[in-house]
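Researcher: Hi, I'm a grad student and pretty new to this. My advisor asked me to get structures for two proteins we've been looking at. I'm not sure of the right format, so I'll just paste the first sequence and hope you can take it from there.
Model: That works fine. Here's the first sequence with its structure tokens right after it:
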Amino acid sequence: MLNTNFYRSYRPTPSLEEMEEAAISFCGLEWDSLLKEFKESKTHPYTREAQLPDRCFEALYIITLLEKGFAFDRFSRTITYALEVHHLLAQDLMFNCFLGRGQ
């Protein structure tokens, strides 16, 4: 069984509202300054340069999906973010969130 307290102690848990504020701030940056900062600092080790043009769309898509699709409260800090999810876990989550509602 996954020890979620241990896992969360090493992961940030921003609310969707905070994620949206950060995404809007990021999306408002000038491309040239963003690219320069990215190349000089490497502040985000999980983003490759080829992914950079899509990060704004991805962030807003994830926020919208979590809030509108999965009905997460935008002020709650109950979401734990991960880079990968095992396909069986994802399948179970989808069933419980969409098909299992009201049963």
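Researcher: Oh nice, that was easy. Here's the second one.
Model: And its structure:
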Amino acid sequence: MSFIRVKVIDERRYLYEVKSVWNPKTQKNQQKVIRYIGSLEDCGDRVKRKDIFERDNYTCQLCGTKENLTLDHKTPLAKGGEHIDSNLWVLCVRCNTSKGKRILEINSTLTGETIET
């Protein structure tokens, strides 16, 4: 399971794909960088984390919790998704982990349940 993280260095934001790995010495999970994706400033549509969180009301879009929130790509970058605001949503760590690299959408017009596409 990997996640996209943003790291700020000298006021520039950089995207990295990271995964959680077990460190036997510390007996804790740690994040390991898998690959560097690029600078957010280099993207045509600049994505601001705060804007996505505000748009989604600081709420997980799958379960509704307001704790342990992350940004996630609806269509993963590995499956051709883009790093644009319409492809990003707020998920809690639990939902993001269980989603994996699947593509989910909220079927809000019918039942509000999630469907896999």
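Researcher: Is there anything I should tell my advisor about the second?
Model: You could mention this: Residues 44 and 84 are 9 Å apart (CA to CA).
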